[in-house]
Design brief:
The complex is a heterodimer. By secondary structure, chain A is of the alpha/beta class. Chain A has 2 domains: about 80 residues, no CATH class; about 150 residues, Rossmann fold. In chain A, about 35% of the residues lie in helices and about 25% in strands. In chain A, the strands form 2 sheets. Chain A has a 6-stranded parallel β-sheet, sandwiched between helices. The longest helix of chain A is centred in the first third of the chain and has 17 residues. Chain B has one domain. About 5% of the residues of chain B have low confidence. Chain B starts with a helix and ends with a strand. Chain B has 2 helices and 5 strands. Chain B is of the alpha+beta class. The chains are: A alpha/beta, B alpha+beta. The interface between A and B is medium-sized, with 24 and 17 residues.
Amino acid sequence: MRYNKHMIFDTLREAIAAERPVALATVIEGQPLGAKLLIDPNGAQGSLGDADLDAQVQADALTLLDAETSESRSYTASQGTVTVLIEVYPPPPHLIIVGAVHTAIPLTTCAKQLGFRVTVVDPRGTFATNERFPDADELVVEWPDEALPNLRLDRSTYVAVLTHDPKLDDPAVQIALKYPVRYIGAIGSPKTQAKRKQSLLEAGVTPEELERIHGPIGLPLGSKTPAEIAISILAEMIAVRRGKRLGPVTT
Amino acid sequence: MMQDVLPFIDECRDRSEPLAVATVVRTYGSAPRQVGSKMVVSQNGAMAGSVSGGCVEGAVFEECQLALKTGQPKLLTFGVSNEQAWEVGLACGGTIEVFVERLDW
């Protein structure tokens, strides 16, 4: 064996359990058949039998990890042509809902069906209750600007801002913009969006950063009920997650 | 996905029972399971997970048993089943490649 028995598998096992991003590369055609390289954002362990190949696969694995796509690729290495399977294990997606409002209830339930971990943030303890949100993984009864920095805000994080109250919504959007979260959606009419953008610009947010905000939140499905709005928000999150570019919003 | 078969792997490793892993590594055309789907087979013949809609699991099981004996990894290809009776293939018309290896890494 090129490595200690079970070392690669144990590291993979731990990373998946701890919900840390990790990728596993295996030579599936060519030599050394079955060789492994384990990749995470901090480095790699093991070898596919060639240092240059390891470096190339490491770079590709990080790109595939971000795209949440596992695939097999061919490489030319010192030992000849090899095919390498790159399996990615991104952390499970995490939806942070700011505002324990009516729409947040079906949004929580449907997001759980899609495999999201769901956290609901709202300082109003009468709204953010276990009775209203039995499906939420976590209820945080705090102001968004206190709560958000304590939550994981990375490429697996999606933020939906739903209160309609600028005192809550604007700080939440502003904090989310400081992190590489995959999705930021904010509720409100085009008029509300324009007002929010103006106040964010005044707070020092750049015009490029504002482009990251999906607002009005959700795909334009013509949703009327809270559940329909929840579906339009989740549909937009799926499109972002799967890298689907959508055309201009139509009314 | 590895997550689907981890509880089974943990059980077998607690008993120090050797395991073989089969993974979907490429698909062409319509295929029932995506790349990364896994089936795990223990030396005693217990199994978990799947690599297709049930079309090729029998053949993959045999290859897993072989890999457990020899330790030799292998890339398998399953195409559309033709009219020859009993041949293993995929009813959906796609092709899948499955990598089989002993879990000793």
